[in-house]
TrEMBL record:
CDD domains: GRX_SH3BGR. GO terms for cellular component: cytosol; nucleus; ruffle membrane. Keywords: Acetylation, Cell membrane, Cell projection, Cytoplasm, Glycoprotein, Membrane, Nucleus. The keyword Disulfide bond does not apply. PANTHER family: SH3 DOMAIN-BINDING GLUTAMIC ACID-RICH-LIKE PROTEIN, SH3 DOMAIN-BINDING GLUTAMIC ACID-RICH-LIKE PROTEIN 3. The lineage of its organism: Eukaryota, Metazoa, Chordata, Craniata, Vertebrata. Transmembrane segments: none annotated. This is SH3 domain-binding glutamic acid-rich-like protein 3. It is found in: Cell projection, Ruffle membrane; Cytoplasm, Cytosol; Nucleus.
Length: 133
């Protein structure tokens, strides 16, 4: 789900799909030739999960999205519970096979996890942390 965009620009609510057609066949939202969802790899992405029994993870995810929304920073929310490949992608980008959400990535550059995010907010270096500056 994409946050910080108007309803017309927002992505469907499943799997981080974006509302633009595939470049090879111009179909939406799944490319029949690749048989996979079309996802944007550019821009800020927050890896999260909608299925967790951990109150800590739920709280951390909420705080990250609340802060980003409050600062009007556009991001894409990627729900790793939709597909194990998304979880593996998150862990590969984080460089940690046991990484848990929330994890923050800008393009193909790993920004950090919740603790680093909160530290950047407290030190007023969020733009640099998110690699937006």
């Amino acid at each position: 789900m994409t946050r910080g965009l108007s309803r017309k620009e927002t992505a469907p609510e499943r799997g981080g799909l974006v509302s633009r057609p595939c470049s090879c066949c111009h179909r939406y939202p799944v490319c029949p030739s690749a048989r996979r969802p079309i996802r944007s790899m550019s821009g800020l992405r927050v890896y999260s999960t909608s299925v967790t029994g951990s109150r800590e993870i739920k709280s951390q995810q909420s705080e990250v999205t609340r802060i980003l929304d409050g600062k009007r920073i556009q991001y894409q929310l990627v729900d790793i519970s939709q597909d194990n490949a998304l979880r593996d992608e998150m862990r590969a980008l984080a460089g940690n096979p046991k990484a848990t959400p929330p994890q923050i990535v800008n393009g193909d550059q790993y920004c950090g996890d919740y603790e680093l995010f909160v530290e950047a907010v407290e030190q007023n270096t969020l733009q640099e942390f998110l690699k937006l500056a």
